[in-house]
Amino acid sequence: MDEKIAPHLEELTRALGDIEKTGIRAEFYKLLAFRVSPEIAKDTILRKFGGKRKILKVKDLSASLKNFEITGRILDIGEKPLRPQEGAHEGPSKLYTGVFADETGSVMFSSWKELPGSVGDAINIKNAYTRLWQNRVRLSIGEQSLVSRVPDSSLPQLSELSEIPSKKLIDIGAADFSVNTVACVLQLSHREVPVRGKQSKVISGVLADETARLPFTAWVELPGIDIGSIIRIEGAQIRMFRGMPSINLVSSTRVSAVTAEDAEKLAFTFESASKDPAPLKIEEIASRDSMFDVIAAGNIVSVRPGSGIISRCPECSRVIQKANCRVHGKVEGVRDMRIKAVLDDGTGAMSVMFPRELAETIYGKTLEEAEQLMFSDISKDAVYEDLRRFLTGRYIAVRGNSSNGEYGISFVAEHAWVPDDDLAVRVVELLRRLGPDEEEQCSEVSGGGISLA
Ligand SMILES: [Zn+2]
């Protein structure tokens, strides 16, 4: 293990100086404890502490990136005066906002300093960062950023960059500003939500094509469109929702039904798009910022602390300690159960969150039964210890949504089960490793799936 880690620690020292004193070494080991690979842990730290300058494209942008370099064209720019803050010194008095694009996409930006260029000009930004603002990723140019105008380089022309890109669902990312796509409606429901204090009707659901699925929200009516419709969407806005890009149909978005004739030319039909997704390797999931409604399977290699019985604030559902919510103060907590476990399939590992219903299924105990265990045992970690004993090493499949962050992939499971198709193969493999004597016994197990419940 140490042989694998040593070169990364050396590199961190070269880039960042005394890593012992600055606590970077501890940060590195913290990431390893989350089963982040040494390589990724090193990159994360370099990104966070600015040791290595990264050159990014618009398509690479996600929330909370720091200290990267990017080159693109200004598509649009405007300025607004800022109200001087009380007690503030000579801060910036104007904020410049607009749209910035390269050949991979376009993104909203905001700048605290005047830019050395206007609409159509190509600029290079060093020490740029990103922010999530109104659920959209925004390229930020701060006081510490260096901006220079660059010669009209190899960037596509303004007219080309201003065109809204047509994308498959899998290629739609957090930084996308506006996209065109063709997809079929897999799910659709109407609900009322408060928008600026007024109840408004919105439609939400799931879209699919041959590459992926994504959630959508329509803030406008969609006459004639229902589950099974194949639609062409022009000028949809992308916003982040629970760490996932979501397609927003707004008043400026054009939505039209695809004719039967045109639908025949597509690589998907409603039938093919509504089939269960094929299982993915965890390394594939790790290679993307986020994935919606995907399946993976692996062994539970550890159950994380914080799993078991928890208390939530009745107002905001935050997890609370000692009947104290950090927003609502003293409250009567509501009991809940959850499991956070690390799932490993040999290609990578990810942290999976099982909410109560799934936690009860994979643990085989209800919340009430777990509470009995908690009350009957003097150890306050009784449930956690029991969970660890019961779940560690189990092979399970999960279906849900993933998002990739500072501590690797976090996956929220919406379904979980024991895949019986692989069981026979894995048991035979295991027995082969153990030796020939045990092989006969495997026929008993390979007959069918076992249920965890
Ligand atoms: Zn609360």
Kindly describe this structure.
There is one protein chain. With 453 residues, the protein is an alpha+beta fold. The chain has four domains: 1-52; 66-163, Nucleic acid-binding proteins (OB fold (Dihydrolipoamide Acetyltransferase, E2P), Beta Barrel), CATH 2.40.50; 169-273, Beta Barrel (OB fold (Dihydrolipoamide Acetyltransferase, E2P)), CATH 2.40.50; 282-417, Nucleic acid-binding proteins (OB fold (Dihydrolipoamide Acetyltransferase, E2P), Beta Barrel), CATH 2.40.50.140. It contains twelve helices and 22 strands. It has helices at 2-16, 24-33, 38-49, 158-162, 260-263, 270-273, 282-286, 356-363, 367-376, 382-391, 420-434, 442-446, and strands at 54-55, 68-81, 94-102, 105-111, 122-133, 136-141, 146-149, 178-195, 198-208, 213-218, 230-241, 244-249, 254-257, 290-303, 308-312, 319-320, 324-325, 329-330, 334-344, 349-354, 395-405, 408-417. A five-stranded mixed beta barrel has the order 2-3-4-6-5. It has a five-stranded mixed beta barrel with strand order 8-9-10-12-11. A five-stranded mixed barrel has the order 14-19-20-22-21. Helix 2 (24-33) packs across helix 3. The structure holds zinc ion. Zinc ion binds next to loops.
